[in-house]
Amino acid sequence: xxxxxxxxxxxxxxxxxxxxxxxxxxxxxxxxxxxxxxxxxxxxxxxxxxxxxxxxxxxxxxxxxxxxxxxxxxxxxxxxxxxxxxxxxxxxxxxxxxxxxxxxxxxxxxxxxxxxxxxxxxxxxxxxxxxxxxxxxxxxxxxxxxxxxxxxxxxxxxxxxxxxxxxxxxxxxxxxxxxxxxxxxxxxxxxxxxxxxxxxxxxxxxxxxxxxxxxxxxxxxxxxxxxxxxxxxxxxxxxxxxxxxxxxxxxxxxxxxxxxxxxxxxxxxxxxxxxxxxxxxxxxxxxxxxxxxxxxxxxxxxxxxxxxxxxxxxxxxxxxxxxxxxxxxxxxxxxxxxxxxxxxxxxxxxxxxxxxxxxxxxxxxxxxxxxxxxxxxxxxxxxxxxxxxxxxxxxxxxxxxxxxxxxxxxxxxxxxxxxxxxxxxxxxxxxxxxxxxxxxxxxxxxxxxxxxxxxxxxxxxxxxxxxxxxxxxxxxxxxxxxxxxxxxxxxxxxxxxxxxxxxxxxxxxx
Amino acid sequence: xxxxxxxxxxxxxxxxxxxxxxxxxxxxxxxxxxxxxxxxxxxxxxxxxxxxxxxxxxxxxxxxxxxxxxxxxxxxxxxxxxxxxxxxxxxxxxxxxxxxxxxxxxxxxxxxxxxxxxxxxxxxxxxxxxxxxxxxxxxxxxxxxxxxxxxxxx
Amino acid sequence: xxxxxxxxxxxxxxxxxxxxxxxxxxxxxxxxxxxxxxxxxxxxxxxxxxxxxxxxxxxxxxxxxxxxxxxxxxxxxxxxxxxxxxxxxxxxxxxxxxxxxxxxxxxxxxxxxxxxxxxxxxxxxxxxxxxxxxxxxxxxxxxxxxxxxxxxxxxxxxxxxxxxxxxxxxxxxxxxxxxxxxxxxxxxxxxxxxxxxxxxxxxxxxxxxxxxxxxxxxxxxxxxxxxxxxxxxxxxxxxxxxxxxxxxxxxxxxxxxxxxxxxxxxxxxxxxxxxxxxxxxxxxxxxxxxxxxxxxxxxxxxxxxxxxxxxxxxx
Lengths: 510, 154, 315
Description:
CATH superfamily of the largest domain in chain C: Bordetella uptake gene, domain 1
CATH architecture of the largest domain in chain C: 3-Layer(aba) Sandwich
Oligomer: heterotrimer
Helix content of chain B: over 70%
Number of helices of chain B: 5
Distance between the termini of chain C: 73 Å
Shape of chain B: flat
Order of helices and strands of chain B: HHHHH
Order of helices and strands of chain C: HEHEHEHEHEHEHEHEEHHEH
């Protein structure tokens, strides 16, 4: 441990030379810009800029890439808050309360809390990475297909009702997400499913297209519907009441950030869509713990702080399997692995032993990237928040252009724009009936993985279902799921005699 | 409120039915070696069950409440601009690869601005050309996102 | 003011739209379609090669990812591109696999081979603490316990899955194939002991082998790996079978021969450039140059092989 700290200090020495700081800053700025564009997240951002780093020495290149990586992650939540357009998969949840805050004129605090929360989660996450990486990586290996399936079922049932409207409605939406997730090539056999002969559907429905459609386009359309009213000369712009969070905001958020970090770090060790699950889980946890659950969905700052921290912590934890096992658990780490490989750094079991100075240099540069982003993003807050001052009738067309641009750049495909349009229409309609988009997106993320894990488990066990109950971790998740389902029914049964116990939850308001 | 719920429930029921129908056309296999249709079939059946419970429940409540609630308040907006926006996005999807990025961007912004308030066409033209130019420089030239070049080579 | 601004913008648009014609190829950037998402082995190799090849072409080489349908979307786009040498496609083994699996619009014949860059051998990896000391023990065990050894692969019907199936036939055994969504997850499952073996191509699994966590049970190559000279090929051990994954570059059918020649020369020079050689070594890929004719012959051979194999599999 002491030796590690010494080496970490050495790493900081390398990373803080003037040219390296410059590369980090450049990376952070480019990353932020890329992250702000919906659709293009850390993955595409790093991929686009890998060639630009070829001429640099490995340390500088990695520092610049770390800047891009964190920058893109920071940027993702900006459009969620300002425009209700989730910039990437992990910032869907931030739309719920972040956008409400912006509508109430509190875009500044929301953006600032995101930056601060990400920084805190990043810092703690790095500490966890340095201190506990090897044992945590071994724990991550305990997750085989059976454990994975049970975890997915647990996540599906428990998290689908994230906004707390109605369990039945949420489950239906989540099931629709699961079904949409089966479109494309069967992940096990390779047959085409529900593609109707379309080549573009073979790869399935792009998550980001559905997310931007349901949230961003749906929101723009319902704004447009009201234009007749809006153009009557009423105030169109939400007033910016304050640019930075008050002490009260910080007090409320700090605990949410810490809890979010813990949840994110834990979930981040599981391969697959960890950041998404982590943000949903953190949001639900905050809502459960809060003394004022009715504020959630109306612009509760904890509903931004928790998930944003969880997202960053999950991404941080994803480095553990990369550095200890040499295996990327999630696409963003996969692309970072590729970038590291090109620069002669092979993350994996031998890295800490063979080239400690590089390992610690990478860790230190990641931390510095994180820190520079905080410094960079706080001044950006007023700038971004002021976007909302633009008149809606000018802003809305630009948002649409922004969505089209970002959507195309994800896969370089116009098909995704069609998908985005379709789900924009669905989101607009569903909003009228208070059918939530968040559970659908959860189902869409979990679906394919759940199916693969289910079928893998049964292939390995030769069709024996007891494999799910024989494995302790898997059994624990299944029991927890069962408990979650049984308890409300039990409670409901007790409440029946009293009147009007059927529909719970806060009254939906606009 | 309940009326929308009932309608939504019915639509979801139809979606579930469609899923079940299409899944049954695919090989189902066994659980040991599941075919491509098995998992969607299970999901479809589950969705059918949930949506029928939901639709029936809201249908019952709808009856009870109809006397009390009276007419549901209709939205104050108009559907026309919504359809216009959707048509413009469809235009972008259909013509992006032929027109190239910057022209499509300008046309999209221009059309949307016109939909939202047509009387400032000169201002709108400047905004839309600027939007096309700025985003061309930012995304195509600087970030090097490979957008289609279109007939004009832009 | 507004008028002047619109005039400037107008000039900008018109000026930008004048097409350039020149006799010498290339006059503008050359794009390479990667039919997979960014960050995969193919993507990385061609990003590195493209960066170096830019030097010799005097124009930038831009990588365009068009993922989808296991590669089908990208190949369809690549086939449809104008045959002028400005839109190339990464020709990788699935080009000869996909058309046999689903109804695709393309086959390898719709492309003009330029050169092959990389040939990676396939391998079967097991954990170092596996009960089998060598390939013979593995095969003996599999013969006595058919369908019991679980073998992970990176996706159903993908290259390494088919290689494992072909190996089954060659060795006369039956394995239980478990598909994962990529090489990373399958190697993780092996490390965690959830499957008994995995079928992969480098660089997947290489760091774990170097760290002593995994070992190569079967190497389906004609010659041993320079990295692990002690590991025998399956041919050395009496099973006549070798199969690898190749990654090369192709242009749409109908591209003029002199353009193909120019591209071949430039990319060949890039392959020999020490800068790219160093990057290839870091990535643990095995460079193997083939000219356009030889590359075409390789595609034809593998297309026939996979066609037969998939027909058998589907029975």
